[in-house]
Fold:
Amino acid sequence: MQELESNHIETYHDIEKIREFILNLTPAEAREIGIKHGSALAYLNKKAKDHIDILNKNGEV
Structure:
């Protein structure tokens, strides 16, 4: 049996699930998961509402 040359694993994110999670976050919940500033939550909400890729700034998933 031939040995694998690389251990590359591709991850596919459920973008719609992440988007809904962000849109439903309250400020208190956001602080619990490490989003310290309300402006950061507002930024994420804006990106989620506009369907802009929030996982990668280069537009790649």
In short: DSSP finds three helices and no strands in the chain. The CA atoms of residues 30 and 41 lie 7 Å apart. The chain has a mean pLDDT of 80.
